[in-house]
Write a structure and sequence with these properties.
single chain, 29% helix, globular, alpha+beta, 3-stranded antiparallel β-sheet, 6-stranded mixed β-sheet, 11 strands, tt1808, chain A
């Protein structure tokens, strides 16, 4: 999720990095094609969705593959003059040189997956700007989680339209043999249930 900054001018990473250092966690700043994207503090359902998606992906990679599932904040620099912070993402550990013992965000140049939890204010950013950015940057999978429509839009390299997942999503990461299968209705029901205030006993 996110919205463009009010001032319409071209920003640079040199200008954005001090903002990142000052903000700590929120608001979240990103830079794509010279446009500064500012994300306010998210809502409860958004954060519950982030936790649930991370849990699903992390469980899969723990059992079946090599990848590092994380959530923002993160100052990724997949291409020069850009800074992005996907809601959920999977780092490709093979993209870091073997002699780097403790890599920084800048050392990771490739993701296996990027996920954004969409909000009404972020439709253009998530569905167009970030979609184009991540696919152009070589990210093989980009998912948009739509909490209102209860769907996951799955974008992959070479497709002109997304796969709209209402019932299930099956993802086979590169060099893996066992796919990750997500029960989409179950995911959204879990998000809905955990976003509500627990009933008093």
């Amino acid at each position: 999720m996110g919205m463009p900054a009010i001032h319409h001018r071209r920003w640079t990473t040199t200008e954005v990095r001090p903002l990142l250092e000052e903000s700590h966690r929120w608001p979240r700043y990103e830079l794509i094609d010279g446009e500064l994207i500012v994300t306010p503090s998210p809502g409860v359902a958004h954060q519950v969705a982030v936790v649930e998606v991370v849990f699903i992906v992390k469980t899969y990679f723990k059992e079946h593959g090599v990848g590092i599932p994380l959530s923002s904040p993160a100052d990724l620099e997949l291409v020069p003059d850009s800074i992005t912070q996907p809601d959920v993402f999977v780092l490709d550990p093979d993209s870091v040189a073997d002699d780097v013992e403790f890599p920084t965000w800048a050392d990771f140049k490739r993701l296996l997956l990027a996920v954004e939890i969409i909000s009404p204010s972020s439709v253009r950013i998530d569905r167009i700007m970030k979609r184009d950015f991540y696919l152009d940057a070589g990210v093989p999978e980009y998912w948009i989680v739509d909490l209102d429509a209860r769907i996951i839009e799955r974008w992959t390299q070479g497709r002109e339209s997304p796969e709209v997942c209402r019932d299930s999503l099956e993802w086979l990461p590169e060099n893996e043999w066992v796919p990750l299968t997500i029960d989409v209705p179950k995911l959204f029901e879990t998000i809905r249930a955990k976003s509500r205030r627990p009933k008093e006993r």
